[in-house]
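Bumping with the actual sequence this time:
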Amino acid sequence: MSAIFLRRNSVMNFVFFVILALSALRSGDADGCTSPYDNGPYTVEKLYLNLPIAQSVRFLWIVVPTAEGKFPVVQFQHGFQVRNTCYNQLISHVASYGFIVIAPQMDSGLSFNATHEIRDAIDVLKWIQANIECALSVRGPEIKPDLSKLALVGHSRGGKVVFSMGIQLNGTIPISAIIGLDPVDGDRQGIQTNPPVLTFKENTVNLTVPTLIVGTRRGSKNWPLFPPCAPEDVNHNEFYKDLIEPVYHFVVGKEYGHMDFLDDAVCKLRSFECMGTVGSRARMSRFAGGVVAAFLQATVGNNPCYFNYALTNYTSAPVSLEVPEQKGELPHNHNLQVPLKDE
């Protein structure tokens, strides 16, 4: 009887350890990373500054880690007619992974021409290079910006703005990564917001830096009487086709739309014309903040394991995702694993 008990106990222990190993693999512990959709290791603090930049007084919303250290800097460009503070959940999530995120409020008005907005965004970037360390020292000397590691992130028209910045700067200011969240380049092919980014020819738009594009399936859909907010032939799909590698592409399933990157509550009223979720946007904010933080960790943080988790465990994201796509590989991070897309 005792021999039978010992054998049974050994089998149970073996099963137990197998379950533990599988759980560790699912959670990312095997490569040292937990899910990027959980909050990062830093608590964050929000700063609100009104400062003269170029010819304007610009409202900057800045989110920083509350820890001593030197952190990469991210400039975040908001969408058309959206307040920069409407991305609190998303931006705070990114900052919690060790990034200083600076979101300027732009004066886009109702113009179909983005030329001035792109110029103003470049002015902000130049101001960041020259002045952000001094501006942050008011809060305390322990937080330092690492200006050798700059990244650009933009949503909707802001996505178009950051891609245009990459094209116009052409390496004159060193940018390490560019991310577009449901970027849009106008109403349709032939009616693009000036200056146009898309060429409608594959692999022709060269940003010279690693790029991430996050799209939404509902962005190209529309409510009755309203046009789609991210029309099919000028949205994330065309950006992915046109951009030269390395570029990664995540697409959120049909339950979320173009404006669901924004916070709930007051900011939700801004997006009534765009088809999206009728419930909370919290899951979308967790996903978007997580995948942005993971990509930034892989490109400016030299830590690919969070992004590796996002790629290989895409079915465990807070929202439903299509199989991620990629063109090319990130420099020095060839251990990234991308799932094969079913033909």
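The tokens above came from a reply further down the thread. The longest strand covers residues 143-155.
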